[in-house]
Amino acid sequence: MKQKLLLxxxxxxxxxxxxxxxxxxxxxxxxxxxxxxxxxxxxxxxxNNSAHAWGQRKTGGAWGTGSVxxxxxxTTTSRGSSSGTLNVRLNGTCCPGGRCSYGSGSxxxxxxxxxxxxxxxxxxxLIHDPGVSPTGTTLMxxxxxxxxxxxxxxxxxxxxxxxxxxxxxxxxxxISVTIDNNVTLGPYPVAENNPSISFLAAGRNTxxxxxxxxxxxxxxxxxxxxxxxxxxxxxxxxxxxxxMNEAGSGTGYSSYINAHDGSxxxxxxxxxxxxxxxxxxxxxxYIWELVQNGTFTYDYLGPAASNTNEPVTLxxxxxxxxxxxxxxxxxxxxIDATLVPRLFxxxxxxxxxxxxxxxxxxxxxxxxxxxxCPTYCxxxxxxxxxxxxxxxxxxxxxxxxxxxxxxxxxxxxxSGLPAGGTWDTNEVAGIGMIAQYWNGQ
Length: 441
Hints:
This protein has no helices and 32 strands. It is mainly beta. It folds into two domains: 5-25 and 229-436, Jelly Rolls (Sandwich); 31-219, Jelly Rolls, CATH 2.60.120. A hairpin with a 2-residue loop joins β13 and β14 (174-179).
């Protein structure tokens, strides 16, 4: 099963942008970059939810024939707990001429390594190597359990494509991996009572290029030392609050508040229930999702209550390019986010397939936007709930307030999707939208 497409829809003058969405876990932890080769480099995002390991190897000697001098990456500065879950997406970002891979040359790999002690360690990833996958990439599992080798490789060209979601579950006695929410391998009997966790890219020999970007790095609560949420100084450019009640029936439904611009950038926060995703098992969870220049990332924050009023707030600081998400009055997530005002704002409800229903409500929506008042500040016009309703879902302004203080429902049962169609492949949504006031418009 491929990663689920969520409709983080940005509709501006008739143009819609779709974002990819799936599930991750709750926390980030501090990451530290390092390299064992002068031609290989690594960086991590400010809030540690992504990392990039790349470069062209300068040292000599094929991997496996000498010391480990062929990789770079980032590692957790604190050891993991004796059990936990990690979700991360491995993206091949060596893209000469626009065609991407995890590297080029005689061999390369992108991997996640759990290192407990010299006799207990294991790495999972994608590899191109003349001995195991000479004409493409395949899955690699390399390690030791109690000093004895474990793991192996899939066949030549065992995995195609350049973006794959890995979900790791570990305990003190072993570790398993699920790939793309589809195939689970393990558990491998590798002791993981105190693992150091690294995100790495490697080149096989001199001149080989490795390039992997790790996105959606997030851990289950309690599995690592969580990094605290950072609140930027000063007043936010945007504060968007609403009391959200997510409800529905069937295989999937969701509710969101969203801010976006006209340049393929957006940030959404909300609640989603999706029985097709094994991480959530059909239970409601808080999530955020981000689109930057058309590239989608996300994080799955923790359980939410179904059919219950849940106050949520999205704040964004323009000078710091930081967004913070609040559950009630508690800040629970911070991310790098660039938006280019003028901004536009949505309330949105979704359902997954034909026959699924959504019955969301949003009360007391409040939006404060802008820092150059009155010319570029506040809201313009009134909420539009008639232009963006699809496949049987409808947004309704239930109290008639044109701007702040408006209440909404998004309700309906999905119908009319083509055979096999889901919210992965079609725009299945009811949306209300309003724009920022912008010099008289």
